[in-house]
Amino acid sequence: MRIRAVLFDMDGTLLDSAPDFIAVCQAMRAARGLAPAEEAAIRAVVSGGARSMVCSAFGIDDSHPDFALLRDEFLERYQQHCAVLTRPFAGISELLDDLERAHLRWGVATNKPLRYAEPIMQALGLAERAAVLVCPEHVSRSKPDPEMITLACQQLALNPAEVLYIGDDARDIEAGRAAGTRTAAVRYGYIHPDDHPAHWGADLLIERSQELRQVLDRVLCGC
Protein backbone atom coordinates (compact mmCIF):
# COMPACT_ATOMS: atom_id res chain seq x y z
CA MET A 1 0.00 0.00 0.00
CA ARG A 2 1.31 3.43 -0.98
CA ILE A 3 2.65 5.70 1.79
CA ARG A 4 0.50 8.84 1.97
CA ALA A 5 1.75 10.43 5.19
CA VAL A 6 4.78 10.48 7.47
CA LEU A 7 4.65 10.75 11.25
CA PHE A 8 7.69 11.71 13.30
CA ASP A 9 8.67 11.32 16.90
CA MET A 10 9.81 14.76 18.09
CA ASP A 11 12.95 14.69 20.28
CA GLY A 12 15.84 12.92 18.60
CA THR A 13 14.00 12.34 15.32
CA LEU A 14 12.46 15.51 13.95
CA LEU A 15 14.19 17.96 16.27
CA ASP A 16 17.53 18.20 18.04
CA SER A 17 16.21 19.42 21.39
CA ALA A 18 19.23 18.30 23.42
CA PRO A 19 20.89 21.76 23.39
CA ASP A 20 17.98 23.24 25.36
CA PHE A 21 17.94 20.33 27.80
CA ILE A 22 21.69 20.65 28.29
CA ALA A 23 21.46 24.42 28.79
CA VAL A 24 18.88 23.92 31.54
CA CYS A 25 21.04 21.35 33.30
CA GLN A 26 24.10 23.58 33.10
CA ALA A 27 22.17 26.59 34.43
CA MET A 28 20.98 24.52 37.38
CA ARG A 29 24.53 23.42 38.15
CA ALA A 30 25.89 26.96 37.79
CA ALA A 31 23.24 28.24 40.21
CA ARG A 32 24.70 25.84 42.76
CA GLY A 33 28.31 26.76 42.10
CA LEU A 34 29.01 23.49 40.28
CA ALA A 35 31.19 23.02 37.21
CA PRO A 36 29.42 22.18 33.92
CA ALA A 37 28.33 18.58 33.46
CA GLU A 38 29.56 16.48 30.56
CA GLU A 39 27.24 17.34 27.68
CA ALA A 40 27.55 13.94 26.02
CA ALA A 41 26.35 12.21 29.17
CA ILE A 42 23.18 14.32 29.27
CA ARG A 43 22.54 13.90 25.54
CA ALA A 44 22.81 10.12 25.88
CA VAL A 45 19.87 9.98 28.31
CA VAL A 46 17.49 12.53 26.73
CA SER A 47 15.08 9.75 25.72
CA GLY A 48 14.72 8.89 29.42
CA GLY A 49 13.10 12.26 30.11
CA ALA A 50 13.54 14.67 33.00
CA ARG A 51 14.28 11.93 35.51
CA SER A 52 17.23 10.56 33.55
CA MET A 53 18.64 13.97 32.66
CA VAL A 54 18.48 15.28 36.23
CA CYS A 55 20.08 12.11 37.56
CA SER A 56 22.84 12.31 34.96
CA ALA A 57 23.50 16.03 35.48
CA PHE A 58 23.78 15.69 39.25
CA GLY A 59 25.15 12.16 39.60
CA ILE A 60 22.19 10.93 41.66
CA ASP A 61 19.33 8.47 41.30
CA ASP A 62 15.63 9.11 41.83
CA SER A 63 15.82 7.88 45.44
CA HIS A 64 18.01 10.86 46.39
CA PRO A 65 16.27 13.28 48.80
CA ASP A 66 16.90 16.22 46.44
CA PHE A 67 15.63 14.49 43.32
CA ALA A 68 12.01 15.70 43.35
CA LEU A 69 12.98 19.34 43.86
CA LEU A 70 15.63 19.14 41.14
CA ARG A 71 13.20 17.52 38.72
CA ASP A 72 10.55 20.17 39.38
CA GLU A 73 13.09 22.95 38.89
CA PHE A 74 14.28 21.32 35.68
CA LEU A 75 10.74 21.21 34.28
CA GLU A 76 10.02 24.80 35.29
CA ARG A 77 13.23 26.08 33.73
CA TYR A 78 12.63 24.02 30.59
CA GLN A 79 9.17 25.56 30.17
CA GLN A 80 10.93 28.91 29.71
CA HIS A 81 13.80 27.53 27.61
CA CYS A 82 12.23 24.80 25.48
CA ALA A 83 12.45 26.61 22.13
CA VAL A 84 15.66 28.62 22.36
CA LEU A 85 18.30 26.29 20.91
CA THR A 86 16.12 23.48 19.53
CA ARG A 87 16.34 23.07 15.75
CA PRO A 88 15.42 20.46 13.12
CA PHE A 89 18.17 17.95 12.48
CA ALA A 90 20.25 18.45 9.34
CA GLY A 91 18.20 17.73 6.23
CA ILE A 92 14.84 17.69 8.02
CA SER A 93 13.71 21.12 6.80
CA GLU A 94 14.41 20.09 3.21
CA LEU A 95 12.62 16.80 3.78
CA LEU A 96 9.47 18.55 5.02
CA ASP A 97 9.60 20.85 1.98
CA ASP A 98 9.83 17.81 -0.27
CA LEU A 99 6.88 16.11 1.44
CA GLU A 100 4.72 19.17 1.04
CA ARG A 101 5.69 19.60 -2.62
CA ALA A 102 4.67 15.97 -3.17
CA HIS A 103 1.30 16.71 -1.48
CA LEU A 104 2.07 14.29 1.33
CA ARG A 105 0.97 15.14 4.84
CA TRP A 106 3.24 14.89 7.84
CA GLY A 107 2.78 15.17 11.58
CA VAL A 108 4.18 14.44 15.01
CA ALA A 109 3.31 11.80 17.59
CA THR A 110 5.41 12.33 20.70
CA ASN A 111 5.54 11.45 24.37
CA LYS A 112 6.60 15.07 24.99
CA PRO A 113 3.84 16.92 26.91
CA LEU A 114 1.77 19.37 24.90
CA ARG A 115 2.87 22.33 27.06
CA TYR A 116 6.37 21.93 25.61
CA ALA A 117 5.68 20.41 22.19
CA GLU A 118 3.19 23.04 21.03
CA PRO A 119 5.34 26.14 21.75
CA ILE A 120 8.33 24.47 20.13
CA MET A 121 6.38 23.72 16.97
CA GLN A 122 5.08 27.29 16.93
CA ALA A 123 8.51 28.84 17.51
CA LEU A 124 9.99 26.85 14.63
CA GLY A 125 7.14 27.66 12.25
CA LEU A 126 6.04 24.03 12.08
CA ALA A 127 2.71 24.19 13.89
CA GLU A 128 0.75 25.47 10.91
CA ARG A 129 2.46 23.01 8.57
CA ALA A 130 1.96 19.79 10.55
CA ALA A 131 -1.25 17.94 9.78
CA VAL A 132 -1.38 16.45 13.29
CA LEU A 133 0.33 16.84 16.66
CA VAL A 134 -0.47 14.06 19.13
CA CYS A 135 0.86 14.29 22.69
CA PRO A 136 0.24 12.32 25.90
CA GLU A 137 -2.64 14.64 26.84
CA HIS A 138 -4.59 13.38 23.81
CA VAL A 139 -4.54 9.69 24.78
CA SER A 140 -4.93 7.47 27.81
CA ARG A 141 -1.69 5.56 27.16
CA SER A 142 1.55 6.90 25.67
CA LYS A 143 4.08 5.00 23.57
CA PRO A 144 4.95 2.14 23.44
CA ASP A 145 1.17 1.68 23.45
CA PRO A 146 -0.12 2.15 19.87
CA GLU A 147 -2.99 4.47 20.90
CA MET A 148 -1.05 7.63 20.00
CA ILE A 149 -0.17 6.41 16.51
CA THR A 150 -3.66 5.06 15.95
CA LEU A 151 -5.17 8.44 16.88
CA ALA A 152 -2.82 10.27 14.52
CA CYS A 153 -3.83 7.95 11.66
CA GLN A 154 -7.50 8.53 12.47
CA GLN A 155 -6.99 12.29 12.42
CA LEU A 156 -5.29 11.92 9.05
CA ALA A 157 -8.20 9.72 7.89
CA LEU A 158 -5.69 7.15 6.66
CA ASN A 159 -5.24 3.42 7.02
CA PRO A 160 -2.16 2.89 9.24
CA ALA A 161 -0.63 0.88 6.40
CA GLU A 162 -0.50 4.14 4.43
CA VAL A 163 1.61 5.83 7.11
CA LEU A 164 5.33 5.69 7.91
CA TYR A 165 6.29 6.34 11.53
CA ILE A 166 9.87 7.43 12.23
CA GLY A 167 11.46 7.32 15.70
CA ASP A 168 14.70 7.02 17.64
CA ASP A 169 13.54 4.75 20.46
CA ALA A 170 12.38 1.14 20.70
CA ARG A 171 9.08 2.47 22.10
CA ASP A 172 8.48 4.33 18.84
CA ILE A 173 8.95 1.26 16.71
CA GLU A 174 6.89 -0.93 19.04
CA ALA A 175 4.04 1.59 18.93
CA GLY A 176 4.17 1.98 15.17
CA ARG A 177 4.24 -1.74 14.51
CA ALA A 178 1.36 -2.39 16.90
CA ALA A 179 -0.66 0.37 15.22
CA GLY A 180 -0.01 -1.17 11.80
CA THR A 181 2.19 1.54 10.26
CA ARG A 182 5.47 1.02 8.48
CA THR A 183 8.33 2.03 10.73
CA ALA A 184 11.79 3.57 10.41
CA ALA A 185 14.36 3.66 13.21
CA VAL A 186 16.98 6.40 13.15
CA ARG A 187 20.45 5.96 14.60
CA TYR A 188 21.26 9.68 14.76
CA GLY A 189 18.86 10.38 17.65
CA TYR A 190 19.31 10.05 21.38
CA ILE A 191 20.38 6.43 21.45
CA HIS A 192 21.85 5.06 24.67
CA PRO A 193 25.21 3.38 24.01
CA ASP A 194 23.80 0.05 25.22
CA ASP A 195 20.81 0.22 22.87
CA HIS A 196 20.74 -1.36 19.40
CA PRO A 197 18.23 0.07 16.89
CA ALA A 198 18.88 -2.82 14.51
CA HIS A 199 17.17 -5.10 17.05
CA TRP A 200 13.94 -3.08 17.27
CA GLY A 201 12.26 -4.72 14.27
CA ALA A 202 11.81 -1.56 12.20
CA ASP A 203 11.16 -1.82 8.47
CA LEU A 204 13.90 0.71 7.78
CA LEU A 205 17.09 1.70 9.57
CA ILE A 206 18.52 5.16 8.93
CA GLU A 207 22.04 6.15 9.94
CA ARG A 208 22.06 9.92 9.43
CA SER A 209 19.30 12.50 9.26
CA GLN A 210 20.52 13.63 5.84
CA GLU A 211 19.71 10.14 4.50
CA LEU A 212 16.00 10.41 5.32
CA ARG A 213 15.17 12.13 2.04
CA GLN A 214 16.76 9.39 -0.08
CA VAL A 215 15.23 6.61 2.01
CA LEU A 216 11.80 8.18 1.83
CA ASP A 217 12.11 8.60 -1.93
CA ARG A 218 12.65 4.84 -2.23
CA VAL A 219 9.71 4.08 0.05
CA LEU A 220 7.36 6.38 -1.80
CA CYS A 221 8.21 4.98 -5.21
CA GLY A 222 8.10 1.40 -3.97
CA CYS A 223 11.74 0.80 -4.90
Could you name the CATH homologous superfamily of the largest domain? HAD superfamily/HAD-like
Structural class: alpha/beta
How far apart the termini lie comes to 13 Å
β content, as a range?
5-15%
Q: What fold name stands as the CATH topology of the largest domain?
A: Rossmann fold
The whole-angstrom Rg is 17 Å
Mean pLDDT, to the nearest integer, reads 94
- Helix segment tally: 9
Domain module tally: 2
Considering DSSP H and I runs of 4 or more, what fraction of the residues is helical?
A: 40-55%
Overall body shape: elongated
The CATH top-level class label of the largest domain: Alpha Beta
Beta strands, count? 8
Q: How do the helices and strands follow one another from N- to C-terminus?
A: EEHHHHEHEHEHEHEEH
Across the major sheet, the strand order is 5-4-1-6-7-8
Biggest sheet statistics: 6 strands, parallel
Low-confidence stretches: none
The CATH architecture of the largest domain would be 3-Layer(aba) Sandwich
